[in-house]
Write a structure and sequence with these properties.
The structure is a homodimer. Chain A is of the alpha/beta class. Chain A has ten helices and twelve strands. Chain A folds into two domains: 111 residues, Alpha-Beta Complex (Aspartate Aminotransferase, domain 1), CATH 3.90.1150; 212 residues, 3-Layer(aba) Sandwich (Aspartate Aminotransferase, domain 2). At the A-B interface, α1, α3, α4, α6 and α7 of A face α1, α3, α4, α6 and α7 of B.
């Protein structure tokens, strides 16, 4: 017998590579190619470091109030955490405490099954169809909770709000999490449905559209009762998580709505151009509503393309996962210049 | 049936009050009365906000390397998290996966039983003696793991390293966590024992002696194998937690060892004077090796004193807990001036 017998053993997630050298075109982690709002830099520069001797405001009020006003909800409808990963993991822990399995698609954000295993939550995956679309009948069944990424990752496919509402209506007695990490790039948010469905938790993040992957802010929206349960679990675990610098940065970013709309519009425009060029080069992909395109080539394997681009210092993401997705590449939408260089490189390989 | 039936219900921790008005003397949350090192302010002012668009370095290398050099260990012996609460909670989740109960004192840091309940870890508390000392025989038994805060909170009592080593030696086949949140204020750290005992995890924090309660940095030291298990669980949960601003702040604080020693020495000197004055006023307390004194009065109840001080805008901590501790106050060591004002107020009440 050894202490190792009692260790909870898990398979850690392998994040996309973060190369330290400059000169790399990083299209592998869905980061925003633009810097955060200039108001963020200002908030940091003006921050009074002496405040750090005290514990943070556990309610992160400055941030939550700014969020309430930006999203048109009340503060009591908001839960904030350290990136949406923290929010989602806490939501799994809080709401999925049943014997019936939690259900989610077989191709989706790769953390869902890991959290379920970590917390010993039974789960079951439901196969997407050949075009990576979710079959709604799969979600109208007995279950312990539902998790849907919308748009889905890494496919980029959007599910209509009508279908989401049907799933919500069927599952009134369990919590349905809609993970909207990428929603700002052109999909419709389920946020307005929280008034109608007390079992709906909508999760979003500052990592993509707010250009703040580094700061680690995620949030959940829901009715007060749902949010209060999340807070109870969070406060039993670690009362102080978001530090005051993080809170100041997040609030500053929210105050600059014009900048947010501007960089988001730029990313959407670049994505649409990128789709056109990729199509001409023989790629196919579902219609992405995100800041990435999940593409496969008619002739070359994903592995070949990945390796070629890598040599050119262009990093994209290749998931070595079951089913057909191992022949796909997830390519983040960069700046126009970065995408030009991607397309030039691909032309060299393909033609 | 409702979704609420499946909610994991917990009792959230109530943190010490954070009054928003100034003019309050805050001796209720064991914050450092001095600001963090001037190098911290400099690091924040000079931080390049554009870096925040990218995900953080998951390994927090800048911070971990600075820590390795400050504490004389290797980087592979260090795990960092969002305050020691995060580190401790992850350690509970990772290492206490047994049917036998985890054991810790009945009077100790109030999060231990909450984490155990949250993660469905069986636990058992062992009564301290009348002088708040731990009885070592209680820890030489079959168990699923041991947690010892040293010095203990909220009592301030130090346990000798010899006893800790005996407990470590007896429990070779389970993990022993030594939580050293307050160790820098004059107690002996178990850190040197990690070379000898692969079942020892030593946890510390930046919240007290580093004057950075706000920034949320905690760390664990242990042999590589132990640390790797913690990392696996952390990376399965949320790969990116410490943001780069936090990492820069933590590394800057570690670079200013002279400042750290200076403010720590000041706090220790103030504490010793405070003990003398409190004793003269009829208080008794165990010999504190922390930045607080856990005191009871020969005549007045803790409640009376608490209420009186509160009216004078002096906040101290009163735990309404079982056993004798509800007649104790935990009073943080402030600046000399703050403690002068505390003593003046107490004289007014007591004489």
């Amino acid at each position: 017998m050894s202490w190792e017998d009692n260790v909870r053993k898990v398979v850690p997630y392998t994040p996309g590579e973060q190369p330290k050298s400059s000169g790399v075109i990083k299209l592998n982690t869905n980061e925003n190619p633009y810097p955060p709002s200039p108001l963020v830099a200002k908030a940091i520069k003006e921050y009074d470091a002496s405040l750090l001797r005290k514990y943070p405001d556990t309610g992160a009020s400055e941030l939550v109030e700014e969020m309430a006003s930006a999203y048109g909800v009340k503060s009591e409808n908001i839960f904030v955490g350290i990136g949406s990963d923290d929010v989602l993991a806490l939501a799994f822990l809080t709401f999925f405490n049943s014997e019936s399995p939690v259900i989610f698609p077989d191709i989706t954000y790769s953390f869902y099954d890991v959290w379920a295993e970590l917390y010993r939550i039974p789960y079951e995956t439901k196969a997407l169809d050949e075009e990576f679309r979710l079959k709604k009948e799969d979600y109208l069944c007995d279950n312990g909770g539902v998790v849907i990424a919308n748009p889905n990752a890494p496919t980029g496919v959007e599910l209509s709000l009508d279908v989401i509402e049907e799933i919500l209506a069927y599952n009134r007695d369990r919590v349905v999490i809609v993970d909207e990490a990428y929603v700002d790039f052109g999909a419709r948010s389920a946020l307005p449905l929280i008034d109608k469905y007390d079992n709906l938790l909508v999760v979003q993040t500052f990592s993509k559209s707010r250009a703040l992957a580094g700061i680690r802010i995620g949030m959940a929206f829901g009715q007060k009762k749902l949010i209060d349960y999340l807070k109870d679990v969070k406060f039993s675990f670690n009362s102080y998580t978001l530090n005051p610098l993080t809170i100041a940065v997040g609030a500053a970013a929210l105050r600059d709505d014009a900048y947010f709309k501007d960089i988001t519009a730029k990313t959407v425009a670049t994505r649409e151009r990128m789709k056109k060029e990729l199509k001409e080069l023989g790629f196919s992909f579902a219609d992405s509503r995100t800041n990435f395109v999940f593409a496969t080539h008619e002739r070359l394997t994903a592995e070949e393309i990945f390796t070629f681009l890598r040599e050119k210092n262009i990093f994209v993401r290749h998931f070595k996962k079951p089913r057909s997705i191992d022949n796909y590449l997830r390519i983040s939408v960069g700046t126009d210049e970065e995408i030009d260089r991607l397309i030039t490189a691909l032309k060299e390989l393909i033609r």
